[in-house]
Amino acid sequence: MKLKTSIVDIIKADGKNLKILLDVSDFHPAGGGQPGDSGTIFADTFQGQIIDTIKDQRGKLHLTRVKNGTPVQGLEVEIEVDGQRHQLLTKMHSAQHLISRVLENNHNGMFTTKANIDENESTIYFKYDGDFNWDMIFTTEDRVNAVINENRKVTSSLLSPEEAREMEGLTAKWDRLPENDTIQVINVEDFDITACSGTHVHSTGEIPNLIIINFKGSSPDWEIKFCLLREEFQTSHSRIIRQFSKNIDCPPEKLERTYIKLQQDNKRQRKIIEKLRHLIEIPWEITEIGQSYMYFAVLPGFTKDLVMSAAKKQLINNPEAIVFILMPSEDTLPTGFLLLQGEKTNVDLKKLIQVSELKAHGGGDGKMLSGITGCNSINTWKGTLLKYI
N or C: which end of the chain has fewer CB within 10 A? Predict the structure, then answer.
């Protein structure tokens, strides 16, 4: 809905970005982790996009990006809130209150420190000395969605600080609340009473069923992310899981157990490789270069981890040498390479692999480079190395 008003003051911010103070405004300012309203501002001689609304001692400041014309003090304008975004932020903020209340009720000592409300995906930050797990998340989801479906009444009231402090069961961050201003209290019927400056629904039934996407952190600092697109999120993820389950021939209910087993197998394999790699002897092809040598090897299917010890050992015995290993893959993966030089050799290896015919991409320090190459010919590599050196 459009609202007629006038410009009281203009504060220059940066280029075409202004802060505009209006006579009256129905835009809600940022607060409680919720961004300020956005929308449009326009007149015959001026059009702008309001990208945020904040509040300070002067009142509501509308952060405006000028599109056309020039705003001036006293200009009569019309403003219009982006209603769709406002409603999304409102539903998200009310959902955040429900999640925080369930978690704080169910887990002793847990409390919300802040929230970042967004129209697509929101984040809640907690302090908690225990550990988060998926069982906690799923239980919270179920309880919150039950409260949503119960369509509980949500009311808002403005109280003085004295009245707010006397209210039984009120959750508030008193150090962040104004001392001499009214306090907005949001009451979810028989469920939660919290001091909050954001916008909220009139009943929990207005909130779509939510899903907690993820959590991370470590004691005592945790955060969770959630969205209100439960069905869409579940549909997209179920398709990914079904495809993956089919590709690896593993039922969805066994995916986690299979993954854990693969992690354990991988750990055991790494320990075996760690023991074996010191025993590897590489069949070098040796080329003399002046007072030293260049050592070449082609090792299909090998990896850098497997051959690194043998390559370094060769350079310890021959500090003036250069070592090159080409490691063609046994499938369609790119070919790996390893290029090292001894302590008494000083070649610009990074410049070397920039030669176009080697089709190489890699990195490292001055003594060792590794990466991938589109050139599988050891003769091309050998010729380029010898010519360069």
Answer: N
> Residue 331, SS3?
coil
Q: Name residues whose C-beta falls within 8 Å of residue 136's C-beta, 6 or more positions apart in sequence.
A: 103, 106, 107
Give the amino acid at 161.
Answer: P
Strand ordering across the sheet containing 111-116: 111-116, 122-127, 221-227, 211-218
pLDDT per residue over 44-95, tens digit each?
999 999 999 999 888 999 999 999 998 999 999 999 999 999 999 999 999 9
CA dihedral in degrees (341, 365, 276, 260; nearest 10)?
Answer: -160
Say how far residue 386 (Cα) sits from the centre of its chain: 47
Instruction: Render pLDDT for 271-314 as a digit per residue (tens, 0 to 9).
Output: 887 777 777 888 999 998 877 889 999 999 888 888 998 999 89
- pTM of the predicted model over 0.85: no
3-state helix, strand, coil in the chain (%, to 5): 35, 35, 30
**Entry field: residues in the chain:** 389
For residue 21, give both structure tokens: 């103070």
Task: Identify residue 38 by its one-letter amino acid code.
Answer: S
Question: What amino acid occupies position 381?
Answer: W
